Amino acid sequence: MPVGTPADSSVRGDRIPAGLEVLVEVPATSANLGAGYDSFGMALDIRDAVRARITPAPIDPEACVTVSGEGADVLPRSTAHLIHRVAREVLAARGLELGDRLELEARNVIPQSRGMGSSASAVVAGIAIADAIGQAAGCEPETAAGRLAWATHFEGHPDNAAPALFGGVTISFTDIGGAAQSVSVPVADGVRAVLIVPETRLDTAIARSLLPETVPHADAAANSAIAGLFAYAISHDPGMLLEATVDRLHQNYRRPAMLESLERVDALRAAGLAAVVSGAGPTVAVLGTGDDLAERVAAVLRGDPARILATAIAPVGVLTTVVDES
Ligand SMILES: Nc1ncnc2c1ncn2[C@@H]1O[C@H](COP(=O)(O)OP(=O)(O)OP(=O)(O)O)[C@@H](O)[C@H]1O
Ligand SMILES: N[C@@H](CCO)C(=O)O
């Protein structure tokens, strides 16, 4: 877990300006992208927005978060809310205690528990809010590596967090020192994504519990070749994306938990479209080119009730605006 260093060791909560307002906008993400289990990810042009405010006086810790849109009926309104919890923990590591003065207003559009990185987006929002508050209190900005380390600490794996932080298509890995790192891969002109989002939800923890402890060596070897091919196809030759998105590590093991999603993947791939399970599912992502990609997907899935969302790959990750420095 990273521990940010205050620029001045006397930095404490009383240095946080009352009235400070920060707006963060975080993209949805699609992880794995076929062969890149727990590694590949891409940012999507769909964003949750969170406004954070430092109140002049302490507020009720049971009612310090408002939520509209996705999850409004289930997410906590208290300091137990994921974004609140992340922001407080990151600030505490910098010696900054908020003392019940952080108010959040979340406007959510990213579908939750569907494989579109909603939890990573919430974690990244908390990290970005903490960083902006920390800087207003005199701390150094968090480094890119520090942000990714924090996100990995909360998420357990960096594949969704990296594109939510940095945008585009990312390849995350653990470096030889044991730290999460990521690199950005250029995306060839015209590559876009179509998401097929069902009403059903699947908890990532449940999807992960279906994976075996070990896989056959032949599968690992084939998967590593395809993972390398993906980096080439997405950046240089999108015509190879169908070949470059074959997975042998996770999708089939998870089939029992999302039969319809895997049927969609099979049907789309049989029609020549590069379809994969998005993250831990049950959303399906299709990568390809052409203005008519969504129509081609819809033609294969005719009569399917799942929502079809056409989106660009977002070139930038989380956006932070200090609205009022007070
Ligand atoms: N905007 C949000 N604000 C607060 N908590 C959230 C938010 N979005 C997601 N969460 C929390 O994360 C949980 C969903 O996480 P989960 O990892 O199961 O799915 P996901 O992140 O949408 O999918 P995936 O990781 O496969 O892309 C929600 O049940 C909720 O607890
Ligand atoms: N790589 C992760 C993404 C979802 O968090 C998984 O497939 O479980």
TrEMBL record:
EC number, UniProt record: 2.7.1.39
Any idea which GO molecular function terms this record carries? kinase activity
Q: Does the keyword Nucleotidyltransferase apply?
A: no
Which positions fall inside the GHMP kinase C-terminal domain? Answer: 240-301
Q: Which reaction does it catalyse?
A: L-homoserine + ATP = O-phospho-L-homoserine + ADP + H(+)
Q: In which pathway does it act?
A: Amino-acid biosynthesis; L-threonine biosynthesis; L-threonine from L-aspartate: step 4/5
Q: Name one Pfam family in it.
A: GHMP_kinases_N
Q: Where does ATP bind?
A: P111, Q112, S113, R114, G115, M116, G117, S118, S119, A120, S121
Q: Where in the cell is it found?
A: Cytoplasm
Query: What SUPFAM superfamilies does its record include?
Result: GHMP Kinase, C-terminal domain, Ribosomal protein S5 domain 2-like
What keywords is this UniProt entry annotated with?
A: Amino-acid biosynthesis, ATP-binding, Cytoplasm, Kinase, Nucleotide-binding, Threonine biosynthesis, Transferase
Q: Where is the GHMP kinase N-terminal domain?
A: 82-168
Give the top-rank taxon of the lineage listed in the UniProt record for this protein: Bacteria
Report the PROSITE patterns cross-referenced here.
Answer: GHMP_KINASES_ATP
Transmembrane portions of the chain = none
Task performed by this protein: Catalyzes the ATP-dependent phosphorylation of L-homoserine to L-homoserine phosphate.
Into which family does the record put it?
Belongs to the GHMP kinase family. Homoserine kinase subfamily.
Alphabetized HAMAP family for the sequence: Homoser_kinase (MF_00384)
Q: What is this protein called?
A: Homoserine kinase
Q: Which organism is it from?
A: Brevibacterium pityocampae
